[in-house]
Write a structure and sequence with these properties.
Layout (H helix, E strand, L loop, with lengths): L25 E2 L11 E6 L14 H7 L7 E3 L6 E3 L2 E6 L5 E6 L13 H13 L11 E8 L2 E6 L6 H6 L11 H4 L12 E6 L3 E6 L12 E6 L3 H9 L5 E2 L7 H4 L6 E6 L3 E6 L9 H10 L2 H9 L3 E3 L21 H10 L6 E8 L3 H14 L4 E8 L1 H10 L4 E6 L5 H9 L13 H10 L5 H18 L3 E12 L23
Parallel strand pairs: 2-11, 2-12, 16-17, 16-18
Antiparallel strand pairs: 1-9, 3-4, 5-6, 6-8, 7-8, 9-10, 10-11, 12-19, 13-19, 14-18, 14-19, 15-19
Helix pairs in contact: 7-9, 8-10, 12-13, 12-14, 13-14
Length: 508
Amino acid sequence: MRISRTLALAAAGTLLLTACGGGDEVNTGSGGGGSGDNILVAAVSAQPDKFDPHTTSAYPSFQVLENVYDTLVVPNAEDLTMEPSLATDWTTSEDNLTWTFTLRDGVKFHDGSDFDSADVVYSYNRIIDEKLQNSYRFTNVTSIEAPDPQTVVLQLTKPTPNLLALIGAFKGMAILPENAAEDLDLNTEANGTGPFKLASTDANSTELTAFDDYWGGKPKIDGVEFRYITEPTAALTALKAGEVDWTDNVPPQDIESLQDDKEVDLQSTASVDYWYMSMNFDKPPFDDPKVRQAIATAIDRDAVTEAARFGAARPNETAIPEDSFFYYDYAPFEPDVDKAKQLLEEAGVTTPLTMGLMVTDAFPESVTAAQVIASELEPIGIDVKVETLDFATWLDREAKGQFDAFMLSWLGNIDPADFYEQQHITGGSSNYQGYSNPQVDKLLTQASTEVDQDKRKDLYDQAAKMIVDDVSYLYLYNPDVVQAWTPGLQGYQIRADRAINFESVELP
């Protein structure tokens, strides 16, 4: 999932932040919320673009939707292995081409209607038939059938070892009620099976109320208010003042000092995210690999990481973090001004060269990192114009290819395919940079159906090497998840995939 998810994210990756119309409140008809002593107030950095889980790729939307919708399976909070959610169990045929899911009984949607297999078939076919954001997740699926109300069968053309991750890794694969797109305006309304109902949203906040009939048991709080506070210092101040109860918008420079601060409970964990920069392959001279390699050679990732995250991240030249089985230890670019200049000369580039670098103020660390990158490219004759945009404009320009370069992140990655496939395969749904390498396409396609883990890793390693060498993405760092909440808050668990789930929270 991109922040632009790209955090896709993240995204990161990736996101059309069209916002919910002019700052006017949208009443979804789901009830009240956002007032009372048992409402959790969460400070987040940006406003959701829409509430349709199948068409958004914006992390701010999924922060809310995580609490509203369910998927058939869901990542375990501890190690991100897939476990039951709306499906209680599943079996696979001997040839790994037939997957049969048994659905949970007694599940209700927020409007009181019953959940059954027809809702799963509708949701998945909507994504496929309308070629929505995540339709690539069904590349190997030939049919989705419902032999009875409690059973769903997926028929595949090839073994798909990461099928559970494809259908359950994030709420972009949420199950909607049958005909939801015809019955609701999913940009502003929601009807899920999750622990909270969407109550209202406006330019300042989104409010949820507890769903009494939630299959997992009614939440211990009456609701959640997501309050948009872009500036991290302001979010931390609001937390310390008791105006909010939780935030993931913690100033990186304050992380160390907050460890011993009695006014907040601060926790962090290594994430499965990555931050990156990418250049537009349709805009000369960035279509030249030597130009991209020159830029990759001029950038000091250690300096960028320290400025953006103050130690709460690790520089990386590949996407997958080092604690993963699929981590590939490959780092061909060392900061070298002379070598970078030589590569530009070999490309026939006359300096000074101007490059726009598109970032968003919804994620301040992208602005900080871009400023460091600009200072590092100046000595090789590249004049970086940092373009700081609101998130809606950033997403719109990314989708239209109106950029020289952009920076953001991908988050919520679980399977290696999440890190590389749709971002770099020719015509991939998140390949906004326009990268195309037939060898990479072949390797990623082979890896997607390889059931042997060691062989699968080797295929992804080969693809990652080419992606890095071609500078399809210029990888920068893997950040930590850092979140803070009011002392005494119980039942919340910080997660490596940044899923924000408040169903078990108890306020002090």
